[in-house]
Amino acid sequence: MRRTVFVSSRIIDMGYLRNGALICSTGMGVLDEPVPSPLPDFVGPRGAKVWTRLPIMLTDGDVSALVVEVGDFNAVLRRDFLDDLIGGDVDWMLEFVAMSSTVPISGSAEEPGTDLIDRDMFSFWQRQCHSSLPYCITVAATEADFWHQYRPTLIGWGIIALLVFTLSMLLGSHGLNRYRSTEARVMRGLSRDAFYCLYQPIVELCSGRIIGCEVLARYEDAKGPLFPDRFIPIILARGKTWPIRRR
Fold this sequence. Notes:
By secondary structure, the chain is of the alpha+beta class.
């Protein structure tokens, strides 16, 4: 028991019981007379007996502590370790709930049975109970407390949101400009039949007869026509001369 108390940062003292009475502890050694345990404030689902504010013999009853008894052993726990569960300027209450009774274990209640968390007093109020264990925790905060605690986080997220929005706008604008570019129109036109042929006749001047024709490539999509001086350099640069000849 002494090794456990020495190593643990949350246990103040441990005791050994026989027939429900304390006969020794790590802080006081073997007692002159066994000390029977009073009725617990509640019994946990696994049989653990819990006293939320039990005067401890180590301090002649001047200090009360959270005491848990399991089998033939009990442990005096540091109450302040529960304060580490909730950070920030908030009111909170950890409670044992069984049937119609509620026992405050730790938190904002200064006196046993006193619930200082009035829902009407707080802008933010949340009560969460465990799905299988009879424990509930309530956390509450005013608008001022909430803003004081989370202001740096909210400002940080606001800056991140602004940067993400700006980056999205820039990328979206770049993507839209690229989609609307002449090069993109030409590449889309190869697969969408935007290219077509225009036949220009070749006329023999002396006779006026049509002796042939010249096949000219032309382009037109929903945005209008593109003339050869604009799409031919793109076709050559992208190596798409064979696809356009086939079409």
